[in-house]
Specification:
With about 475 residues, this protein is α/β, with parallel strands linked by helices. It has 13 helices and 19 strands. The strands form 4 sheets. Strands 1, 2, 5, 6, 7, 8, 17 and 18 form an 8-stranded mixed β-sheet that branches. Strands 9, 11, 12, 13, 14 and 15 form a 6-stranded mixed β-sheet that branches. Strands 10-16-19 form a 3-stranded mixed β-sheet, with helices on one face. Helix 1 runs parallel beside helix 4, helix 1 runs parallel beside helix 13 and helix 3 packs across helix 13.
């Protein structure tokens, strides 16, 4: 059996992994970064990212106290982690730039990874944003004297005297022992593991569309749980509603996004009845649908005004994505429309009387400024829907899971008593405790990766087994 030694092992070559590895090496530790993929840059979600460096819907350069309050308002985050995240966001952007990653600011407060490059719309929208960022981080890491090996899959942690002292891996069917001072798990979430998705998100959530990396199979989470780590916020994920056509046609994911239709319309089940407050936002609504018994049966209802407005929909001034109008209509996106709600019900195969009653009750409540008094309250910027009306069959798309290993403000993995597990750290989508909540609780996947990667790398470099 081969044996490799290092002060720090980082498992997973995504944005969190390369950040943690580079920061640990900058701090003076010898570092070996491994990844199970055969790719030179791993195969994580960052390779599909639009590049938005958002922190809880705000600029990462915002006041840390403001960022802290925003995230804690969801009620499910852990204060020590959130405080460290908020205080590190600003310097994380500066660190990326100092490591050679090009950062651009399109408007005040809107900070992005470099947006240059060709656009590919199918099957995955990408502008090579993540590829360029990871390539720069890898270059920086290797110049510092770090080492990267791909094709190695970590499968279990080594525990001695109640300390994690490395891990066991496999390469080409052969066992490898990786023994060192600390181990950082940066393997992503579990969105590509159907069994875990069913267990932790919803009994039928495996019917959702995977909107992210196929490599996110929960490896780090599994290894951490095996050594007694605590995991939190399992049921939450970041994602969006997609046309149900995405299940059979890759052109329909991860875009076009349907946020504006959720904001201004209503979502009904196969019975033609509402089951969620659409005003909670697209991420929260996607989560709610994923937990139902009929994940693929919902229809998003909106009117002509919303459809017309969607023609100019775009992700940002610099990041253009397919607008729902005319993309959905032109490509047979399971979109139906009719001059009457009864006619639309017939087109969709829904119960005419129930859908008519649902819409009439909905419109009457909004016209009376009584949306909060509906059987399922309607908040947000809703308005009465006027004919003609549209119905789009939808499915939740899961980009990454928000739940995972609970870490503290030093990115140390915690046990069930919320005490650090010596020698074990976690970063990126492997962690839990920062995201989730009633309104989605999305704080920004890229910023979570960079910030927790920095915290993990800095603190893991100081630990000796």
């Amino acid at each position: 059996m081969d044996r490799l030694t290092s002060d720090v092992f980082v498992v997973g070559a995504g944005l969190a992994g390369f950040t943690a590895a580079a920061r640990a090496r900058e701090s003076g530790a010898s570092v070996l970064l491994i990844d199970k993929s055969d790719g030179e840059l791993g195969d994580g979600n960052v390779l599909m990212a639009s590049g938005s460096l958002r922190a809880g819907g705000k600029s990462p350069k915002a006041n840390p106290a403001e960022l802290y309050e925003f995230v804690m308002s969801e009620g499910v985050a852990y204060p020590d982690l959130v405080r460290a995240w908020a205080e590190t966001c600003g310097r994380a952007v500066d660190w990326l730039a100092g490591s050679g990653v090009k950062i651009v600011e399109t408007t005040p407060g809107r900070i992005w990874l470099d947006q240059l490059g060709e656009v590919s719309l199918a099957p995955v929208y990408k502008k090579d944003v993540g590829t360029r960022a990871l390539a720069k981080l890898k270059e920086h890491f290797l110049k510092l004297g770090g080492h990267y090996l791909n094709g190695i899959e970590g499968h279990s942690l080594i525990v001695e005297d109640n300390r994690v002292c490395g891990l066991m891996g496999r390469q080409g069917g052969e066992e490898i022992e990786l023994r060192g001072g600390s181990t950082i798990l940066a393997t992503g979430g579990f969105s590509a593991n159907k069994e875990m998705v069913r267990q932790y998100i919803g009994p039928h959530a495996d019917r959702c569309k995977l909107r992210g990396s196929k490599q996110d199979t929960g490896d780090g989470l599994r290894m951490a749980l095996e050594v007694g780590a605590k995991a939190v916020n399992f049921k939450y994920f970041y994602g969006h509603l997609l046309s149900r056509k995405a299940l059979t046609d890759d052109r329909f994911w991860p875009y076009p996004r349907l946020d504006s239709f959720v904001d201004e319309g209503l979502l009904v089940d196969r019975n033609g009845e509402r089951f969620v407050d659409e005003g909670r936002g697209d991420v929260a609504v996607a989560n709610e649908l994923a937990r139902t018994d009929d994940v693929t049966g919902a229809v998003l209802i909106f009117d002509q005004a919303s459809w017309d407005a969607a023609r100019d929909d775009a992700f940002s001034n610099s990041v253009k994505t397919p607008a729902p109008n005319p993309w959905l209509m032109d490509n047979d996106g399971e979109l139906f429309h009719h001059d009457t709600i009864g006619g639309l019900a017939h087109e969709l195969g829904l119960d005419r009387s129930r859908l008519t009653r649902t819409l009439e009750q909905y419109n009457h409540a909004l016209e009376s400024d009584a949306g909060s008094k509906l059987p399922i309250p309607r908040t947000g910027k809703a308005k009465p829907l006027r004919a003609p009306v549209y119905g789009l069959r939808v499915v939740p798309g899961i980009t990454f899971t928000m739940g995972g290993v609970l870490v503290n403000g030093r990115s140390e993995a915690l046990n069930h008593d919320e005490k650090p597990i010596p020698g074990l750290y976690a970063a990126g989508d492997t962690i839990g405790g920062l995201m989730g909540g009633y309104r989605g609780g999305y704080t920004g996947g890229l910023m979570q990766a960079v910030v927790t990667g920095i915290l993990a790398g800095e603190n893991a470099s100081r630990f000796n087994c």
